[in-house]
């Protein structure tokens, strides 16, 4: 099988998951437990009672006829329940989306006009199509990239805007409103013109809602206040002639609306708003469903939820409604009422439809000021003061996103403000992922774990770094610079051990970066080793040849990595004679000859000690061909344990520490050949022997490492 056939597109694999999302209603019916019917019915009726006044109020917030809010509640609730995934989420008209709809449409059409109403339907369809597309393409993960600060900032500003916009209907005023500040100033200046009866009804409804929320939170305070206010207007009769009322609520079932879905100019004008609606709706829905799922331990499918929300918006727009999304308030009511499944949302929506078909004329007596009062209370609850304080006390990036989104929502077009907040979320994500932490780690005091301890000493030969992020094109330059910076601070660290357990993904730029690091260290006489490489990064390293370049033996097991490097890579002479710290567990058993460090020969740089060398094979040939009298004396200056493990058969053990302390006495004047592990100790031993009067001294080039690499025989001593 070729690479081309291995990665070819398979239609069944692409189409079948999408079909699964479309079959969700069938799964709901098949899996439904009849034992849940009674609690779902009770919860559904409870939700319907709360949903009814909110649907009317939110439609007024969007400057749409009340029946559009009711149609949205009916269609959105049923469709989202059939195609959604969360058992406790309820979908319907929301305050944030209603305000966003008004902000998007008010710039191109007169609120309340037929063009405005039609555009609201088209806007919902456009947002729904975007959401369905994201779900079918399995892009539900994108909501993870939108900061929670965007929702908090937008929700806070939206709550403030809603409250300010309801001041005029609450007081019975009708004033021009171009922006937040001018509207507030006009309302304050016109306060003496307040219609007293309208204000009394509105403020009385607000007081009743707040009172019931405190003394009887389970009761539908908004509905009760609205019904009492409606009854008051009815009883007052002609004396309430100056009180603005909602007007008759059109009855009848939702019907297919005639929408100009192929009007390219209209679609272009609404595109930004549709994108903002789709994004905010999905983020809001996901936040609500996750919050509830954390209490019920339900596993959610973001893609399925995207499809459900998209269908809800498309059908809501086609059948006389407007944009919809998951509602935190109604979902919380549904959860507290004991709902078991999505059927409770269907029951609530059917209840709203029944009420709409039977009590439409009640709108002739329903005061707008009471609806304004309910909206003001709702707007106040949108301002999450505790969450705002937490964000302000947290990371600066999140605080900036919240503040920018808040100010943009107040003073700019809402759809633009939302997109700016989302864009800032992506920017913050890119900034954080492009500069992952690269920190030096050392063993803790118990030698059990590696930890970042800035004040702890480090090994003079081996640097250990931990990469806390992915190796992708946006981050590799930062990671490489950080590692090279660590190397520059510790020039003696010729070897590098990289811990990669936080690296989940590696792209081709990451591969190039790893190869560049390896090349840099090897050019300096060192090497690079890796531990805890995940399956994904390892697979790409194998496919690109990086693992071949690095070497399979350079991928180490974390538990044995330091031990392996200590015994087979690091130079013991540095550990014994040059290192004043004990970083690793393996260091603890080494003889520490600090009393010998004062020796002038140990104080000299190794590179400054010149001495002739002999290649391992050349020495092997000499030992095999020369007569015993002509063979050189071979002195192994490593520690006894190293000598016993592997040495040249003809060699004698003379540890450098012994040479420093006692000197050396030769039985004859034969040439001397010194050998150690890599050449560092033998070079120092050569300088000492010269000081003692021995001039015919040669080193084994590369030490025992080179001898064993050449495949030459060694001797072993057993204890």
Indicate the topology.
Elements: H1 3-6, H2 11-22, H3 24-31, H4 37-61, H5 66-83, E1 91-92, H6 95-105, H7 114-136, H8 148-165, H9 167-171, H10 180-189, H11 196-215, H12 221-236, H13 264-296, H14 302-318, E2 325-326, H15 328-336, H16 343-358, H17 368-382, H18 385-393, H19 396-411, H20 414-434, E3 437-440, E4 442-443, E5 450-451, E6 462-468, H21 476-489, E7 495-499, H22 508-523, E8 527-531, H23 535-544, H24 546-550, E9 555-556, H25 561-568, H26 572-578, H27 600-603, E10 613-614, H28 616-625, E11 633-636, H29 640-645, E12 652-653, H30 656-662, E13 672-675, H31 680-691, E14 697-700, H32 703-709
Parallel strand pairs: 6-7, 7-8, 8-9, 10-14, 11-12, 11-13, 13-14
Antiparallel strand pairs: 1-2, 3-6, 4-5
Helix pairs in contact: 4-5, 4-12, 4-15, 4-16, 4-17, 5-14, 5-16, 6-13, 7-13, 7-14, 8-17, 8-19, 11-12, 11-17, 13-14, 13-15, 13-20, 18-19, 19-20, 21-22
């Amino acid at each position: 099988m070729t690479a081309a056939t291995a990665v070819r597109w398979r239609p069944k694999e692409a189409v079948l998951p999408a079909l699964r999302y479309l079959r969700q209603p069938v799964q709901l019916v098949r899996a439904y437990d009849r034992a849940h019917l009674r609690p779902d019915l009770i919860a559904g009726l409870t939700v319907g009672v709360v949903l009814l006044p909110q649907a009317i109020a939110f439609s007024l917030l969007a400057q749409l006829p009340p029946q559009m809010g009711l149609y949205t509640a009916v269609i959105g609730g049923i469709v989202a329940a059939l195609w959604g995934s969360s058992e406790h989420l309820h979908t319907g008209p929301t305050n944030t989306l209603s305000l966003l709809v008004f902000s998007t449409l008010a710039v191109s059409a007169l609120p309340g006009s037929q063009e405005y109403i039609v555009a609201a339907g088209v806007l919902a369809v456009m947002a729904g199509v975007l959401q369905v597309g994201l779900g079918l393409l399995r892009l539900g993960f994108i909501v993870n990239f939108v900061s929670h600060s965007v929702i908090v900032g937008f929700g806070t500003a939206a709550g403030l805007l809603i409250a300010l916009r309801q001041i005029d209907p609450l007081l019975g005023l009708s004033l021009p409103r171009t922006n937040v500040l001018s509207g507030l100033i006009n309302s304050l200046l016109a306060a003496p013109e307040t219609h007293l009866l309208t204000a009394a009804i509105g403020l009385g409804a607000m007081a009743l809602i707040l009172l019931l929320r405190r003394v009887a939170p389970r009761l539908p305070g908004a509905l009760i206040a609205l019904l009492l206010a409606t009854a008051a207007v009815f009883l007052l009769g002609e004396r309430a002639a100056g009180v603005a009322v909602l007007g008759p609520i059109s009855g009848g079932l939702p019907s297919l609306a005639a929408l100009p879905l192929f009007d390219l100019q209209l679609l272009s004008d609404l595109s930004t708003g549709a994108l903002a609606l789709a994004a905010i709706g999905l983020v809001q829905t996901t936040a609500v469903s996750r919050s509830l799922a954390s209490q019920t331990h339900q596993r959610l499918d973001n893609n399925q939820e995207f499809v459900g929300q998209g269908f809800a918006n498309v059908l809501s727009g086609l059948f006389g409604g407007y944009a919809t999304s998951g509602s935190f308030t109604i979902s919380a009511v549904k959860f507290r009422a004991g709902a078991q499944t999505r059927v409770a949302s269907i029951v609530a929506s059917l209840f709203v439809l029944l009420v709409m078909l039977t009590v439409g004329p009640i709108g002739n007596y329903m005061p707008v000021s009471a609806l304004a009062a309910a909206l003001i209370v709702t707007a106040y609850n949108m301002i999450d003061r505790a969450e705002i304080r937490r964000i302000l006390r947290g990371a600066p990036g999140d605080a900036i996103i919240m503040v920018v989104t808040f100010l943009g929502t107040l003073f700019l077009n809402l759809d633009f403000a939302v997109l700016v907040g989302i864009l800032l979320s992506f920017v913050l994500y890119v900034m954080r992922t492009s500069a992952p932490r690269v920190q030096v780690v050392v063993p803790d005091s118990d030698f059990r774990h590696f930890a970042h301890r800035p004040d702890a000493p480090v090994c003079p030969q081996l640097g250990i770094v931990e990469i806390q992020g992915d190796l992708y094109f946006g981050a590799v330059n930062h990671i490489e610079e950080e590692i090279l910076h660590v190397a520059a601070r510790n020039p003696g660290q010729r070897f590098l051990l990289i811990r990669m357990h936080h690296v989940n993904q590696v792209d081709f730029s990451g591969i190039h970066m790893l190869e560049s690091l390896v090349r840099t260290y090897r050019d300096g006489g060192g090497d690079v080793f890796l531990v805890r490489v995940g399956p994904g990064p390892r697979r790409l390293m194998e496919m690109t040849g990086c693992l071949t370049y690095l070497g399979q033996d350079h991928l180490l097991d974390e538990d044995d990595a330091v031990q392996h490097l200590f015994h087979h890579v690091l130079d013991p002479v540095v550990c014994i004679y040059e290192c004043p710290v004990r970083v690793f567990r393996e260091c603890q058993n080494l003889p520490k000859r600090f009393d010998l460090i004062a020796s002038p020969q140990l104080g000299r740089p190794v590179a400054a000690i010149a001495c002739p060398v002999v290649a391992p094979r050349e020495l092997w040939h000499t030992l095999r061909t020369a007569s015993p009298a002509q063979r050189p004396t071979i002195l192994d200056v490593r520690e006894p344990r190293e000598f016993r493990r592997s040495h040249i058969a003809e060699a004698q053990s003379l540890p450098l520490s012994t040479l420093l302390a006692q000197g050396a006495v030769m039985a004859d004047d034969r040439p001397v050949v010194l050998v150690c592990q890599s050449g560092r100790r033998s070079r120092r031993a050569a300088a000492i022997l010269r000081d003692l009067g021995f001039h015919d001294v040669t080193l084994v080039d590369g030490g025992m490492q080179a001898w064993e690499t050449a495949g030459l025989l060694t001797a072993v001593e057993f204890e």
